[in-house]
Amino acid sequence: MQTKPKALLALDVVSLILLAISTYLALVFAPTEAIMGDVQRVFYFHVATAWVGMLGFVAAGVAGIVYLRTQNLKWDIIEIAAVEISLVFFFITIVLGSIWARPVWNTWWTWDPRLTTAAITELIYIAYFMLRQGIEDPDRRARFGAVYTLIGAVSVPITFMAIRLFRTIHPVVIGTQSAAAQGGFAMTGDMKVAFFFALFAFTVIFIDLFWNRIRMGNLAAKVEQLRLKISQ
Amino acid sequence: MKSPSLARSSFLKAVAAIVQKDLAAEYRSRELLSSMMVFALLVIFIFNYALNLEPSVRAKVTAGVLWVTFVFAGTIGLNRSMAVEKDRGCLDGLLLAPVDRTAIFFGKVISTLIFMLLVEVIMLPFYGLFYNVNLFNPGLLLVMLLGSIGYVVVGTLLSSMAVQTRTRDILLPIILFPIIIPILLSALDASNGFLNNLEFDLIQPALGLLVALDVIFTAVSFMVFDYVVEE
C-alpha cells in the first residue's frame, strides 16, 4: 500500500484554502462593475478556468511529443491527466461564460472565435477518449493518443486564427479598452487583485489536480500489472 | 549506401506503385467511386429540401452545400481506402515491403485525392445542371484542389489510425471533423469569395491560409505516420 506523499497532501490543503480566498475576493472583495452589475463577478473564475484549460492543453501536447520520442508509458499517463483536467476546466469556462453572456450579450452562445475554439477543443478531447477506448494494446493506445493530441495541438490554434479572420464580439479585457460596447470594461485596482489572485489560485489547483491525476494513473498501471501477474 | 537521387527515384517508384495498385483495383471493382458519387448526389438532394434552395438562398449557401457534400463523400472514400488494406492483411504486406513507410502514406494520399477530385469534378456540373448555374470557375477549382489536399492528408493519417481500432468506420468522422475545421473554414471562405466574384485581395487571406494549412498538415502527418503503422 502506497500512502499519499506528504507534499501532495499539503498542496491539497493549500489549494482548498486558495480556492476559498479566491471565492471571497471574487464575490465580496472586488467592487461591483458599474454597468454589468454582479454578473461580471463570473469573469474572475471564467478567465482562471480558461487559463487552466490552456495549461492542460499545452501540457498534453508536450507530453504527446515527448512520448513519441521516448516511447515511455509514463508520458502517456501525464498526457491523459492533462487532457482530462483541460476537458473539465474548458467545460467550466464555457458554462461560466454562458452565464455571463446571457444578460450581457443577450444570448447564451455566439459563434465567436474563443467560444467556438473552446467548444471544438472539447470535441477533440472527446474524440481523443473515444479513439483510446477502441484500442486494447497499451503501446498502440499511447502512440495513437500522442499522435492525436499532436494533430489537435496544431489544429486548434489555427482554428482560432481562422475564425478570427471574421468579426468577433468577445471582449478583450486585458490589453485594450476599446471593447466597452461588447461587455468589455477597465479593471480597477481591487478587481485586479481578485483577478490575479484567481489566476494564481487556479494555477496551484491545476498543479495539485495534475499531480493527483498522474499519481492515480501510475497506481492504475500498477494494478493492471498485478492483475496480469495473477492471471498468468 | 544509395545515392540521394537513387533513393528519391525509388521513393517515387514506391509511391507510384501504390497509386497504380489502388487505381487498378478501383478500375476493376468500381465500388468506391460509385458509392461516393451516389452518396454525394443524395446529399445534394437532401440539401435541396432541407434548405429550400431557391435562387436568393443559393447565392449564400452554394459553397457550404458543396463542401459538406465533399466532406461526407470524402469520409466514405477515406474509410474504404484504408479498410480494404486492413481487411485482407494487405497493410501488413505493404509494411513488410522494403520501402520507406511514408511512401505508403503518400501513395494512399494521392490515390484517395484522385478519387475525391473525380467526385468533385463530376458533382460540379450536376449541381450546375440542377440549379441552372455555371459553377465552372478556375478559382473555385483551385480552392477545391487545395482544400481536398489538406482534407485527404489529415484524413489518410486518421483513417489509418481508425481502421486499427475496434470501432473503425464509426470513429473516423468523429476524430476527423474537429481537426479539419480550419481547412474547411478557409476553403469555404475562399469558395464563397470566388463564387460571388469578390476581388482577389479579399479572397487572398483565406487562400493563403489554405496553402499554409496544406503545408503544415502534410509536414506533421509525414512526421508521425511511422508511429501510426508501427507494429
Description:
The complex is a heterodimer of chains A (232) and B (231). Chain A has helices at residues 6-29, 42-70, 73-104, 113-133, 138-164, 189-231. With 232 residues, chain A is mainly alpha-helical. Chain A has one domain. The two termini of chain A are 22 Å apart. The mean pLDDT of chain A is 86. Chain B has one domain. Chain B contains eight helices and no strands. In chain B, 42% of the residues are buried. Chains A and B meet through α4 and α5 of A and α6, α7 and α8 of B.
- Number-wise, the strands of chain B total 0
What's the helical proportion of residues of chain A? over 70%
Label the structural class of chain B. Answer: mainly alpha
Q: Mean pLDDT across all residues of chain A, rounded?
A: 86
Entry keywords:
heterodimer; A: 232 residues; mainly alpha; 6 helices; B: 231 residues; 86% helix
Give a short summary of the structure.
With about 230 residues, chain A is an all-alpha fold.
Question: Helices and strands in order, then pairings?
Answer:
The complex is a heterodimer of chains A (232) and B (231).
Chain A: H1 6-29, H2 42-70, H3 73-104, H4 113-133, H5 138-164, H6 189-231
Helix pairs in contact in A: 1-6, 2-3, 2-5, 2-6, 3-4, 3-6, 4-5
Chain B: H1 4-29, H2 31-51, H3 55-87, H4 90-96, H5 101-131, H6 138-162, H7 171-195, H8 200-229
